[in-house]
Specification:
By secondary structure, the protein is of the alpha+beta class. It contains eleven helices and eight strands. The protein has two domains: 49 residues, no CATH class; 133 residues, no CATH class. The strands form three sheets. A three-stranded antiparallel beta sheet has the order 1-3-2. A three-stranded mixed beta sheet has the order 4-5-6. Strands 7-8 form a two-stranded antiparallel ribbon. Helix 8 crosses helix 10.
Amino acid sequence: MDKLNIVNTVFNSVGALAKTSDFVAAGLQEQTVFSLCKQGYIERVKHGYYKLPDLSDPKEEYLLSKLLKKGIICVESALFYYGYNDFAPREWTISVPRSCSRTVKAIQEEVPVKAYYVQNEMYHLGEATGFFNGVELPVYDRERTICDCFKYRTKLDNETFNKALNAYTADDRKNLANLSRYAKKMKLYTKVMNVMEVLLGG
């Protein structure tokens, strides 16, 4: 199989974004990959990642799914996803373990990302999945998102905070048992319940 056929086979297998290691695994040498890039047969997206030159740049959602394996959509981006906020944030808000700061800095060259660094024991609490512009990404569920609003209260403006809580209160899909459980684990129980009791009329 010639080099270009190998390239096409790799992209057909892995999707719009291929790593150097994908080409090497298919039988090309690293030097050949660099050479194909110089010749314009493939195009470098960022260090170690390539796309076909005739394709438009991959969507931000797709880049997130490929470049930030340890990342969960949270806070502002999650609020927008659940309809608890009317406007899309200028940057993706992502929860990551504290060990991932280097990865976050690397992806910020390609995608606007604001990272919330989370302790390992709290990282997976309330993790779910959602579809963003057709791309499946991990996202915190409604209850974890609301708890995070309390946790990061000083980073949110009053309008965003109040709108989120009122929208959650009116949401038929809310799960108050999970909200209570998460709030206890995150040591936010009193704060969360005092406000929710007022909003729920209890």
